[in-house]
Structure formats: C-alpha cells, structure tokens
Amino acid sequence: MARPIVAIVGRPNVGKSTLFNRIVGGRVAIVEDTPGVTRDRLYQDAEWNGRLFTLVDTGGLDYQDDDQMVTHIRKQAELAIAEADLILFVVDARFGLTGTDEDVAKILRSSDKPVILVANKVEDFARVHELYDFFRLGLGEPVPVSAAEGRNTGDLLDMVMEKLPPVVEDGEDDDVIKIAVIGRPNVGKSSLVNAILGEERTIVSDIPGTTRDAIDTYIKRDGKNYLIIDTAGIRRRSKIGLATEKYSVIRSLRAIDRSDIVLMMIDAVEKLTDQDKRIAGYAHEKGRGAVLVVNKWDLVEKDSHTANRYIENLRDGLGFMQYAPVLFVSALTRQRVHRVLELVDYVSEQQNMRIATANLNDLLREAVMYSQPPQDRGRRLKIFYATQSGVKPPTFILFVNEPDIMHFSYLRYLENRLRSAYGFEGTPIKMVMRKR
What we know:
By secondary structure, the chain is of the alpha/beta class.
C-alpha cells in the first residue's frame, strides 16, 4: 500500500518548518522517525487517526529572486509539489497577502493537485474575518492555525485525512514476492530491471504502479511469482541537481513501503554516500529483507582482494545492515544478474522462517548461561520466556522482569546468537520486550 505524501510549501518565513515540527514532533505517539533521512528535517513519516503519511518540508518559494541558492530551493519545492498527493500552502496571517503568495498560488493552481490553504500565525481566532483577503488566491477558504502554539492543527490534520486519496490495498497474491529496486539516481536501477526481465520474457503483465514514476512488473520464473517495483525513470532534465537527489529518497520510500525485499543498488565506482545510507536505513527500520547489489562492477579495476575490501567498506558504512548479502553485478553486461532472483528467493525463505518455541527457549537459556543479562542498581534482568510472534521480519517477544534494564548491546548479543544458530540472512530481526 503506497503511503501518501503531503508537502508543505509557501514563501520564506511563513512558519512551514514550525508546522512540520508540530505535526511530526508535537505528538510523540504518532511520529515514526526515518533513520538518516530526517537529520536534515526534510521529511518524516507521521500518523493521524491511524493513517500513515509522509510529510515533506520545503524551503521557501521565491519567484522574484534569481540567486543560485534560492533557485536550488525553488527546484526542491517544485519537485515536492510534483511528488505530493496533497499540498499544504502556508501563508502568514499576521503579515497578510503578498505578491510572492500570489506567485506560489499560480503554480499550485496549475499543478492540478489538491491544496489546503493554511493561514499560520493567527493570534486571535475570533477575528478570522481578517483572513478574507487570502480568498483572492483562488484556493478556497484559509484554515487558521497557530503552528507555534499548536492551535487548530488537529482540525487541520482532520481535513488532511479527508483530502488524502482513499486507502487501496495492493491486492497482490500472497505467493508474490514484492521486490523494490531502490537507490540513488544513476546507479543503474532501470538497467538491472531490464537485465532481469530480458533473460526470459515470462512477464505476465506490465501495469502502471501506484507509485508515481514507477512501474510494477509482474514476472513468473521457475514457477515463482514476483512483483518488481522499479523506482527508476524519474529524472527530468529540467530538474537534475540537488533537488532530484533529495526527492529520489521519497520515491524510494514509497517503493520500500510496498515491498517484501529491497534490492539496494550501489554504484561500484563511487564511494558509499550519505544518501545510500539514508535509503538503506529506512528499509532496515521498516523490517524489509535486503540484498546489497553493487552495480557497474565491470568498471572497477580489480585484484584478488578488491571484492573483499569493498565488502569491508560496505559493512563499515552500513553497520546496521550486516545481515544483507552482497552481490557484485554489471547490469550492462549482465554479469551475475541471474543470481539476483536466486538471492531474493533465499532471503524470502529466511525472512519467513519460524522457530519452534521450545527450540527458541533452549537457545535463550544457553545464551544466558554464556553471558548474564545486564543489571542496574542491583536489579538483574531476568528473561523468563520467549516466543516468535511474526515473520517479515522475524519478530520475537521476550517476557522479562524489568524491560527498562535491557541494554541494546545485550539485545544485539541475543540477535547474534539467533543468527549463528538459524541464519536469518538478508533480514532484520525485531525483538520486543514485555513485562511478565
């Protein structure tokens, strides 16, 4: 199920970031942090009344300034508008209507996207008649809010929920393995997809994906069904630059949300980038299976240790994804491309693996014997019992005396014991503490 995108746009200094922070940070219970991605506060997953959506913060739109940095910010915002399912157009109620507001409104009217006009910095909600001037923007009635104080933001979010596209389930068969091909622009995502499909033309159907600028391709091979979600084909010549790099992440997020397994593509010629880490980190946090596909391997000068050195660097840079197998390919020459689906099948088996409760608790008792659980202020953590509650990712519930004593390093130790005994290659493992 694709997660809708809500973009916050407007001229500079109208309180866009304040509204963004209010929605994603004001209610801890409804915020879902995206590791790596949210450090620059550009976008974040949020929830309201049980509905998940991705909120995007943008720089100020100014069409009367030709400064290079302003132009870059404008391109970022325009791409956010193109990607969005709904736009929150923020204006400054205290300052009043400006010519820049009218310029932005003109762009939004031509975008053919649903827009909610948000009048921010309202001080007296009994005097909303003072906002009538904003009707001239042709975007309907302005919604008064005070993002700094959080006033009326709940009503605004209720309106957002009403205007978002209806929830539509994927409808794919349970036996279909959904594969998202993700990564930065120009790492060869489309080339890899074409190479996979070009080996055997056993495609059942090509249908337009629910993700904008993506194509869902159903394929059947060796009696198994796959859905390949391609996030490539997204670059527009007029938008190449920093903005494309930023918002390529959003397209990847949508694909990851709908997938079982991701093919995280990395350019063999370039070093691992922060953007790679952000995209991979999101897939990890979402519990998706993963294969690290290093493309353009044919362009790398090699000796007998090149591959091992490259893997070591990948492991250092993606420390949270030590479990993911690494595959060196050339989508251009189709070198080792045949192994992609083999690894996908293997990872699918691993992420659907279930451990019998008796065997799990035997392993747990042995792990505790080798290394005692942590203690705090004289209190020793006791692990009474464990059970597996789910798959994709494999999820385990540990019943303990004091969940707050559990340290992440001990959880990592238990995870390593699980992996040593049962594998779980290519998939994260989730552990949940419950007080008995």
